[in-house]
Amino acid sequence: MRKTKQFAVIGLGRFGTSVATTLHKMGYEVLAIDNDEERVQEFSNEVTHVVQADTTDEDTLQALGIRNFDVVIVAIGEDIQGNILTTLQLKELGVPYIVAKASNKLHGKMLEKMGADRVVYPERDMGQRVAHNLVSSTVMDYIELSPDLNIMEISVPQAIVGKTLAQTDLRAKYEINVVAIKRGDDIIVPPLPSEKIISHDILVVVGSIKGIQRLEGLT
Known about the structure:
With 219 residues, the chain is an alpha/beta fold. The protein has nine helices and eleven strands.
């Protein structure tokens, strides 16, 4: 995943806030949008840009330059009509990739018909993440970006402690990119190839499940 990717998150409820802050901490440029002025004010220092706007209005979206973003996440929760209309407007404006939050299966089907590239069900997805955490002692957190691409936080395998990122050669061996290193209260984003991995580091990696499982197998 290239670091120049730009994301827009529409709707600053629990799900939208979590997605926006996580992407921002990983070093991506994030525009957060909500129609609630108070919520926008509260979130003003959390991401790259935050604006108050009605995203069901096509002219407003055009003024925001929304089509210039690589990925737009529609995280509007309670207002299902607003969620669907926003998704439709984004599709008509030619946004390259739209991720939309659904409340239930019927809502999800409607979003797919509106042209959402990916529909997410936060409650169901959270269940999947909990399951991954339960079956693996090293996976700290898990987000599925697509069927063959995932973001995971993993405890550093002992076999690579003391090596630099360049020496581990994770990209070539496991098709995994390390996008950040969590070290205590610090987050190193992006880590340099010369960064030495130390015990108790947590790696934030992007890659396939198979590659990550092979990395987990190191002792």
